[in-house]
């Protein structure tokens, strides 16, 4: 018999049992039975998996809906559970399977109350019940796997009330598998129920979603999750500081499984029988001390640049991740905004001392300023994520926060500009030179330079200027010719019937011919058009660019604009618009020396 045909469970014939001559016991490697590790240890995420619907935390809306449906006998044939990782989708699917098949000596129908455990509860909880099939669509994605389910659907359950098919990560199924499932999912036999779970609900076809009753499992609130962790830690005989539990809840981002895994790791951080401190948890998670982050934020808002940057560098040297630092700053700015908006009803998951400090900081900043700071910090977080040197990006973000915190509110800025006073700073720009007082202006001021007179309509003989030519082209809606004339025509002479210009670089080679044809067609006479002249004027496009530069330069020299740029360092002029022209005062001008009634007292004296 070949050696590969032997039963692996049979002992090798002819070989002595027990240790051989080479099996020498090595001192220090023999583990005594009394010191061997405990067998069958379960991690907290499995040990404390909910066994009833009452044990589910943070999913009250779903539990209430299912309870009412079971009590009313309105049980759907398919359920779709969606949510982020670790919020209880698979656990809820098994609880639904247990509720559908719940049976005791006194309960003979589906029940949402699973205490005491029914006949089928233990097997379903262990995923070993013959009538409750679980399939992981992440590893079984093809149509062949779905065909196995469809073939089994025809047969009645062996011992339970319903055959329940639980398909986890259903969004991983192929298109053909989804299509094969549709008909059975729409009209399943009465003894079949489907429960689907997915983290990517947008990838599930609408045709499948429309055949299911959908439940969106929520992220668990930080405070609720911290309370849950505290109860489990107490049951395990571990003492974890409340601040450490809140740090775990924040890091878990609403996932109960993630939080329990982190708690499992945190419990072993204690030295001996001592408590697990918040510092132990922060070191484990690579987090910064949030109280020190609050000190950093306070220094930035109070414009203490040296203190803020030194605190940032000290936390980085202690192992804090710059991204985590920026996220903590964002959390605090968000909390300050809530305090500013709703006052004492902010309902923050922070210690009382922290809330007090945040309230004091929020009192010194306007709500608009807080929203500006939050946006600045959010941009800083994105910079830290993409920067080659994250800590340098974090320092720049803190510096921008300090600059943004010192900016006045729009109301204060308007008052300062109207009053002609600029805020004092360590590096204020030089004040503009004093201008001599201008002469008294006449009552009727000249129209502003930007208000150009509209170009006249071309006469019957044809246009006599480039502006009149543009009016004619616009009236005839020749868009292509209008664009080319604006950019490439430098006029020299335009007088009917002759048009001489210099063609700018890049001009179309047929521009002269197109202009001649256009003028002949719309003036009724033949024109001589020459585009090879030299030393022409500006094109209309070049003129507009020059005028825009001149307007911006005048605006920059304007005293009011100088004050605005001083109030808002780094501000840029994006566009300039002429103010609307003032309405003229109706009626003729009346000079003080005419048409005024004589003083009655003067009349009396003369008389």
UniProtKB/TrEMBL annotation:
Domain AAA+ ATPase, by residue range, is 75-221
GO MF entries = ATP binding; DNA binding; DNA-directed DNA polymerase activity; metal ion binding
Q: What does the subunit section of this Swiss-Prot or TrEMBL entry state?
A: DNA polymerase III contains a core (composed of alpha, epsilon and theta chains) that associates with a tau subunit. This core dimerizes to form the POLIII' complex. PolIII' associates with the gamma complex (composed of gamma, delta, delta', psi and chi chains) and with the beta chain to form the complete DNA polymerase III complex.
Q: Where is this region: Disordered?
A: 1-32, 422-464, 578-607
Membrane-traversing stretches: none
Q: What is the lineage of its organism?
A: Bacteria, Pseudomonadati, Pseudomonadota, Alphaproteobacteria, Maricaulales
Which spans does this entry mark as compositional bias, Low complexity? 422-433, 578-588
The molecule here is called DNA polymerase III subunit gamma/tau
One biological process term in Gene Ontology: DNA-templated DNA replication
Task: List all Basic and acidic residues biased stretches.
Answer: 1-12, 442-455
Main function: DNA polymerase III is a complex, multichain enzyme responsible for most of the replicative synthesis in bacteria. This DNA polymerase also exhibits 3' to 5' exonuclease activity.
Give the record's keywords alphabetically: ATP-binding, DNA replication, DNA-directed DNA polymerase, Metal-binding, Nucleotide-binding, Nucleotidyltransferase, Transferase, Zinc
Question: Is ATP-binding there in the keyword field?
Answer: yes
GO cellular component term, pick one: DNA polymerase III complex
Known EC number: 2.7.7.7
Which reaction is catalysed here?
Answer: DNA(n) + a 2'-deoxyribonucleoside 5'-triphosphate = DNA(n+1) + diphosphate
Top EC class for this record: transferase
Family per record: Belongs to the DnaX/STICHEL family.
